[in-house]
Amino acid sequence: MAQTIQVGQVTPADQLRELLTIAEKRVANVWSSGDSALSLLRELDSIAALWPVLEAQGMDLRPEAGRWETLRAAVDRRAADIVTDLRSIGGIHKARLETHPQGTDAPWWHLDRVVNTNRQQRIRRTGLILGGLAVLLAVLYIGLRVLFPVDPKVAEAGRRIGIGDQLIRGQADFVGALAEFEQAAELTPDDPEALLRVGVIREKVGVATAEEMYARARSLIPDDVVFRQMRASVYLTFGMLDQAEGDLQVALAAKPEDPITLYELASVYELRGQTGDAIDALEKVDLYATEANLVELSATARLRRGMLMQQIGVREQTTSTETPSP
């Protein structure tokens, strides 16, 4: 089929409108490749360069001015996506050098500052929220202690567990910690947390069988997934990552969309330095926790995921800066 050929000279005004249209479409689909983000930045540069030329010619730019402001606001909203997308070509700093080697300003040079400002605001908001929750929990705790005094045996068992944890963290004294945990388990034989600690440390040091403790704890926890989550959490506390992952993988096979299992698994990956796997797991935590209306878990997963992505960005930027030019 023959195509209709438009006859006529393309004016700078036509170029401006066409660039605005292209950029408006591209900013909505920037999360595809580094070339897409870089093309968007070049289009923004072209628009910015055409603008004073057309103003000098006396063109009425009021309709285009509205589109230009809307476009720049959309770019700011997608700043995090654009900055992340540019990492595939060396980051926003490299894009600046390639597009503006003379160091002249551009309408998109502030995007990394926008990302940092937004991140700091989120961190401050999270800090305020967590601080408020801490105060609320402290008030509730004090109130509950007044209304419902703690059983002396439970209090002593908690103290013993605290001592055992400190012996491990401060001195790597697993044998001494085991003695404390065993006394805690004797004081509170119906507490699966104390029993699991005894079992895990027995497994760690190999001085006695752990299976008896695991069986007793399992009898107190009807759900096998919950049992494995709890034991994995204790494994994690004492740095037994392989054992923790083993329990979590079994739990995940039984409930593939359990956000708590995935959250613990993300901790295993993070401690191993498998940051990409940890980020993927936390993304699933956010999804499934949101579906289950676990608001706090979803928010915590997003915060941890953002911090890990920031760490990757800092490492990439540092590596790029330290790499000598050929």
Structure, explained:
The protein is mostly helical. 77% of the residues lie in helices and 0% in strands. The chain contains 15 helices and no strands. The longest helix is centred in the middle third of the chain and has 37 residues, at 111-147. The model is unreliable at 1-8 and 317-326 (pLDDT under 50).
Keywords, separated by commas or semicolons:
single chain; 4 domains; Serine Threonine Protein Phosphatase 5, Tetratricopeptide repeat; 15 helices; mainly alpha; 326 residues
What's the short version?
The protein contains 15 helices and no strands. The protein is an all-alpha fold. The longest helix is centred in the middle third of the chain and has 37 residues.
Q: Name the beta content range.
A: under 5%
Strand runs, count: 0
Mean pLDDT: 77
Taking pLDDT < 50 over at least 5 consecutive residues as the criterion, the unreliable ranges are 1-8, 317-326
Measure the end-to-end span. Answer: 52 Å
- Oligomer category: single chain
Number of helices: 15
Largest sheet report: none
The proportion of residues forming helix, as a percent range, comes to: over 70%
Radius of gyration: 29 Å
Encode the helix/strand succession as letters: HHHHHHHHHHHHHHH
Total number of domains: 4
Structural class: mainly alpha
User: Quick one: overall form?
Assistant: elongated
